[in-house]
Write a structure and sequence with these properties.
The complex is a heterodimer. In chain A, 52% of the residues lie in helices and 0% in strands. By secondary structure, chain A is mainly α. In chain A, helix 1 runs antiparallel to helix 2. The longest helix of chain A is centred in the middle third of the chain and has 15 residues. Helices cover 42% and strands 19% of the residues of chain B. Classes of the chains: A mainly alpha, B alpha/beta.
Chain lengths: 79, 591
C-alpha cells in the first residue's frame, strides 16, 4: 500500500510514489520549483482539510517537514 | 462552474505533443500582467489543444506589462500576437486608495483614479498603434469592503464609485477599438470575490487569483480565442418534449404539457425566452424532435405560451427518423458544418448516441430538472462572436426567406428556370467603415466557399482598405425574396504586374446560384477596364472548402489544384476574355 501522502506528492511532482521518501526535496526533484511547491501545499490543504500558516510553508525543506506539519494536526499523513 | 484542478492542467500540459499538427490551425497568445500568472499559459495551452488549436505563447516577465506595451520593437510586438491578455489588478495601481481611501479628500481621490486611468489608457492605446490582433483586458475588481462600512454609499465618489467609474471609462475607450474589456469584476462576483483569492499565496507569491480560479478564468479567456478563430457554435438545435416544454405532446396533449407563466411551466418559458434572445443576436435555430409533425407544430402555432414560433426556425425536423440523421439533414439544410451546432436534448441515451455518431456536434448534458435549464444555458460559453453586425440581427428574417426559397425551388422542375425566377442582383463595392465589421466576421466564419481561409480582424481590413496597393470589396446579393445583405468579400493585392486575389469568399447562404461567377466576372471586368495585365487568385485547400474546387472545375481551372495544397491560379491574362459571366446569365450585375 502506498501512503496517501506519497501518492499525492507523486501525482503533483510526477514521480513514482514508491520512490517518495522524507528526503524528497526540491534538491532532488526537477519539477519541484517554487510554483509547484505552492500548488503542492494547496493540494495538501485540500486533501487533509487543514490550513498551513505562512511560516510553516516557508519552513518546508523536504517531504519530511510536510509530514511533520500534518502530524502536528493530529492527522496520520499516510492514510 | 467547475473545472479540473490546476495541478492536473500542469500534468496535461506536460504531456502535449508539441510537434503534432493541429486541425484548426494555430494561435499566438500573449499574457501580460501586474502579478504572478504562473499556470495561465499551461491551462490555455491544454484548452486550445482540446479544441484542435496549436497555441504559441509569449508570457511577459512579472509586472513587465508597461514596458512591453510601450516597446514598439520589443518582444511583445515582435511575437505578433493574435490575442493579448492583459491582467492588471487594482492593488498594483492604486493600492493606497484601496487601503485607506478617505485619508484623501474628494478631489484628491478623483485625481488619483484619473491619473492611474490615464496612464493605463495611454498604454493600451500604444497597443492599438503598435500591436497586432486583439487585446483582452480585465477590468478592475470593485472592492466589497470599505473602511467607512455602511456609510460607503453615502460618499460622493466613494471607493466603490471610483472603481466603477474607472471601469466605465475603460469600456468606453475600448468600444470602438480592437480592445475587449473582460468584465473580471462580474466574473469574480460570480465566484465570490473572497473565495477567488488564496491569501497565503497572495502574500507568499503575489498570486492575486487562487489556483482553483485560474482554470475558470482561462475558460472565460477561451471564449475570445474561440470567437477569434471562428470556432464558435452558430446554430442551436432543440428537442421539443421535456426540453421546450414539460411532458410529451403525443401523450399529454396541447392542454397537458407544462408551459405557462407560473411554475413549473415557467421554467420552460424562460428557457425559450433565453433561446429567443440568442436568435435576436444572430444564432440560427432548428428543431429535431421525435413526434407526429402536426401534433408538435400545433403547439408552435397555437399554444398561448409558446415563445418560439415556426418563423424562428431555419430548419424543422419533426418526424420518427433517427435523430442523428435529422442533425445531419439540418446541417445540410442550413448549409453549416456539424461543428457549428449545439444540440439541446433531454434524453441521456439519445445524447450518448449523438456524441458517438457526431462528435463534432456539441451535445451538452442538459440538467435533470428544467428549473436548472436557464442556469445551464448561462454557463454555456461556446457561442461568442467578436462583433454583432446588422446582418446578424436580420439573420432570422433571412432564414425564413430562405425556407420560402426552398419551398419554391421544389416547385420548379428545372434549376435554371428557378434561378431565372429569383431575379438575383449582385453588387461588388469597396469596403467602408460600415461594412468592415461584417467583412471581418465573414473572413472568420466562412469555411466552405473560401479560397485562402485567411482570417482578418477589423483593424487589418481598415488598413488594407486605405492602402492604394490593396482593394477590399464586399458583395451584396438580393433576390425577389429579400436581401441577403453583405454575403461575400474579395481582397486584392494590386501589384504593378497584376492583381493577386488574396481572399475570395462567399457566405454558404448564397451558394448554388453561381453568384461566385458573377463576382469574379465583375472583378475581372474591372481589371480589364483598368488595363491590368493579369489577375491571379490564391487558393489553399483547408479540408473544408470543397465548393471552391467545384467552382474552379466548372470554369475549366480545376487542374491547377491537382495534388496540390496551395496554388496561384491565373483567372485572366491581357488579351484574354472574361468568361465568368457565361454561367450566370440569370444574374443582374450592378456597378
Amino acid at each position: 500500500m502506498t501512503s496517501k501522502l506519497n501518492k499525492l506528492i507523486g501525482k503533483i511532482l510526477k514521480i513514482n510514489p514508491a520512490r517518495v521518501s522524507d528526503k524528497t526535496s526540491p534538491m532532488n526533484v526537477r519539477r519541484w520549483d517554487s510554483f509547484t511547491g505552492l500548488l503542492l501545499i494547496t493540494e495538501i490543504e485540500k486533501a487533509y482539510g487543514i490550513k498551513l500558516s505562512m511560516d510553516e510553508v516557508l519552513s518546508i525543506k523536504d517531504i519530511g517537514s510536510i509530514r511533520k506539519i500534518i502530524k502536528s494536526r493530529g492527522i496520520d499523513p499516510d492514510e | 462552474m467547475s473545472d479540473i484542478a490546476l495541478s492536473e492542467y500542469l500534468e496535461l500540459d506536460a504531456r502535449i505533443n508539441k510537434r503534432k499538427v493541429m486541425p484548426k490551425g494555430s494561435v499566438n497568445i500573449a499574457i501580460l500582467s501586474s502579478f504572478t500568472t504562473n499556470g495561465f499559459k499551461e491551462v490555455l495551452n491544454v484548452k486550445c489543444h482540446e479544441m484542435g488549436l496549436k497555441a504559441y505563447f509569449y508570457v511577459a516577465g512579472y509586472n513587465q506589462y508597461a514596458q512591453d506595451l510601450s516597446d514598439r520593437g520589443g518582444p511583445l510586438y515582435n511575437f505578433k500576437p493574435d490575442i493579448t491578455f492583459l491582467l492588471v489588478d487594482a492593488g498594483s495601481i492604486i493600492k493606497e486608495l484601496l487601503l485607506d481611501p478617505y485619508k484623501f479628500d474628494l478631489q484628491e481621490r478623483k485625481n488619483i483614479i484619473g491619473d492611474s486611468y490615464k496612464r493605463l489608457e495611454g498604454l493600451i492605446d500604444k497597443f492599438t498603434k503598435y500591436g497586432t490582433g486583439i487585446l483582452v483586458m480585465n477590468n478592475l475588481e470593485v472592492p466589497t469592503h470599505s473602511p467607512i462600512g455602511i456609510l460607503e454609499t453615502k460618499e460622493d465618489m466613494g471607493l466603490f464609485d471610483l472603481l466603477i467609474s474607472f471601469n466605465e471609462r475603460l469600456s468606453r475607450f475600448a468600444r470602438n477599438r480592437s480592445i475587449f474589456i473582460y468584465d473580471c469584476d462580474s466574473f469574480l462576483s460570480g465566484i465570490g470575490k473572497d473565495k477567488a483569492v488564496d491569501y497565503k499565496l497572495l502574500y507568499l507569491a503575489d498570486m492575486k487569483i487562487s489556483p482553483d480560479v485560474i482554470p475558470l478564468l482561462c475558460g472565460e479567456y477561451m471564449r475570445y480565442i474561440r470567437a477569434l478563430k471562428g470556432l464558435t457554435r452558430k446554430c442551436i438545435v432543440v428537442d421539443l418534449d421535456n426540453t421546450m416544454w414539460g411532458g410529451i405532446i403525443g401523450e399529454d396533449g396541447i392542454e397537458g404539457i407544462k408551459l405557462s407563466p407560473t411554475g413549473p411551466g415557467s421554467a420552460y418559458m424562460d428557457f425559450q425566452k433565453m433561446i429567443l434572445a440568442f436568435f435576436h443576436r444572430g444564432m440560427i435555430l432548428a428543431i429535431n424532435s421525435s413526434n407526429n409533425r402536426e401534433d408538435a407544430l400545433k403547439v408552435l402555432r397555437e399554444h398561448p405560451y409558446m415563445v418560439l414560433k415556426e418563423e424562428h426556425f431555419a430548419s424543422i425536423k419533426i418526424n420518427w427518423e433517427n435523430k442523428v440523421k435529422n442533425l445531419v439533414d439540418i446541417a445540410k439544410d442550413i448549409n453549416i458544418g456539424l461543428d457549428s451546432i449545439v444540440y439541446f436534448e433531454d434524453d441521456k441515451r439519445i445524447r450518448q448516441v449523438v456524441k458517438e455518431a457526431l462528435p463534432e456536434v456539441l451535445c451538452p448534458d442538459l440538467p435533470e430538472d428544467a428549473s436548472e435549464y436557464c442556469r445551464f444555458l448561462r454557463g454555456l460559453k461556446e457561442m461568442d462572436t467578436l462583433q454583432i453586425t446588422q446582418e446578424d440581427k436580420a439573420r432570422g428574417i433571412q432564414y425564413s426567406s430562405q425556407r420560402r426559397r426552398h419551398e419554391v425551388k421544389n416547385a420548379f422542375s428545372d434549376l435554371s428556370e428557378y434561378l431565372n425566377h429569383l431575379n438575383i442582383k449582385v453588387e461588388v463595392k469597396p469596403a467602408d467603415k460600415f461594412s468592415i465589421p461584417r467583412i471581418s466576421q465573414l473572413t472568420i466564419r466562412t469555411n466552405q466557399f473560401n479560397f485562402s481561409s485567411k482570417r482578418y480582424d477589423e483593424k487589418a481590413l481598415a488598413r488594407l482598405a486605405k492602402d492604394k496597393r490593396h482593394g477590399v470589396y464586399f458583395v451584396n446579393v438580393k433576390d425577389i425574396y429579400g436581401d441577403y445583405g453583405i454575403s461575400g468579400a474579395v481582397i486584392i493585392d494590386k501589384e504593378d504586374d497584376g492583381w493577386l486575389i488574396d481572399s475570395f469568399l462567399l457566405s454558404c447562404r448564397i451558394l448554388g446560384k453561381n453568384v461566385e461567377d458573377a463576382v469574379m466576372g465583375i472583378i475581372v471586368k474591372q481589371a480589364m477596364e483598368g488595363g491590368v495585365d493579369q489577375v491571379d487568385i490564391r487558393c489553399e485547400k483547408s479540408g473544408k472548402n470543397a465548393p471552391v474546387f467545384n467552382f474552379l472545375k466548372a470554369n475549366g481551372l480545376g487542374a491547377a489544384m491537382d495534388k496540390k495544397r496551395t496554388a496561384i491560379i491565373t483567372l485572366y491574362k491581357a488579351g484574354g476574355k472574361n468568361k465568368f459571366f457565361n454561367r450566370c446569365k440569370h444574374i443582374k450585375v450592378i456597378g
